[in-house]
Design goal:
Elements lengths: L2 H23 L8 H22 L5 H20 L5 H17 L5
Helix pairs in contact: 1-2, 1-4, 2-3, 3-4
């Protein structure tokens, strides 16, 4: 996959995680979403960091992408537990897609 496309997808995933984070913060059962809130925040941060490292052509890009894929998978798995909430369902889908993309070789 082309680096420009990967960078755009990473920022899109970060944005979706941020939307999920914000929506979780105002849910009635926020206490039950504690793990979800932490993971979507971490995922957003990792996706942004990975995008920046790709933009700067880091020699460790492959390591960032591997870790990003793992964090996106964890986030997706947790969000799927709350798929009755549209923001978590959407986040899980985007994170799964991002995880798969991160495991593809960069150009």
């Amino acid at each position: 996959m082309e680096n420009k496309t990967m960078i755009e997808e990473l920022y899109f995933c970060a944005a979706q995680c941020t939307r999920c984070y914000d929506a979780c913060q105002i849910e009635k059962d926020k206490a039950q979403l504690e793990r979800c809130i932490k993971l979507v925040e971490e995922c957003a941060e990792m996706c942004r960091l990975t995008a920046v490292r790709l933009e700067k052509k880091s020699e460790n890009t492959d390591k960032y992408l591997k870790l990003c894929a793992e964090i996106c998978e964890s986030c997706a798995t947790e969000c799927e537990k709350h798929s009755h909430m549209e923001h978590c369902k959407a986040c899980a889908e985007v994170c799964r897609k991002c995880a798969e993309m991160c495991l593809q070789p960069a150009l």
